[in-house]
Amino acid sequence: MLTYFGEKADKPCGHCGNCESGQAKVDVTDTAALIFKTVRSLHGRFGASTVADILAGSRAKAVLDRKLDELPTYGKLSFVKARHIKSALNSYVADGYLVREGEPYPVLRLTNKAEDVLEGKANVFGLAFGAEDAMADAAVERKLAARSPVHGSLFDKLRSLRKEIASAEHVPPFVVFSDATLEDMAVISPKTLEEMSTVRGVGEFKLRKYGTRFLKIFLEEADKDEKLRETWRKNPIFKETEPEDTAEEMPEEEPSSAALFAQLKFYRITSRQRKACRSTASLPTTPSRKWQGSVLRQRKSSGPSAA
Predict the structure, then answer these.
(1) Pick from 61, 99, 134, 288: CA 20 to 30 A from residue 221's CA?
(2) Polar residues bias: where (predicted)?
């Protein structure tokens, strides 16, 4: 957008994945060939939506009525969302493999560039299906990373493995798994592939491709925890012992007459102090020592009759 208005960006803004799309391109010749074969078999009679429905294996009435489900490529990309197939079609139009013709309902046709791919003379490099969503997530994650707390060693191990896989496959790390997926994985801490499949962002394809390698990290961590617990059990310093209750229950002693008299006298004095407090708004709820002394002096000056 800055370039369009004549400005120059010094570095990626991080709000979208456009700047990173070139780095994320991989060899997609096989899937591109499926798309090109589908377009060629339709003989320029249908547009991008119909092509996407055929490849995704849609059971829409328009597809079945035209017997498009009988095409050889029908359902070959059923594991991909139709909107991602449409996005790929738009990319191939932009890259010159396909052309749109006709209005108001444009149809797709192959170019010589696409024919070369079908003849095995050229390869196609582009974004993997769903890469746009992954790059959008990555842009959001970069913003959140600045505010998020430092992750623990488990999360760092997951990121290290992701980086290792990404380097081997020559793709950005987020194409393997996003940070959000790794965080969810660390929280769930799966011990089986079935538990791993519950992690957000781990689909059937990635579970088969990467699941075992990431699962190994959690199994190693669990083994370390078990060894630590075993050491704790064997160490006498950390053994839990309940204190022996050797004290005998002492019977409650009945208060003496002198003690009862002193207690009754205390209640009587306290009752008088409370009455005096209620009659004097300025006095505090809890009498101070100075105030208690004045009450006692008044009692002495009034003589024995006051008692």
Answers:
(1) 134
(2) 279-291
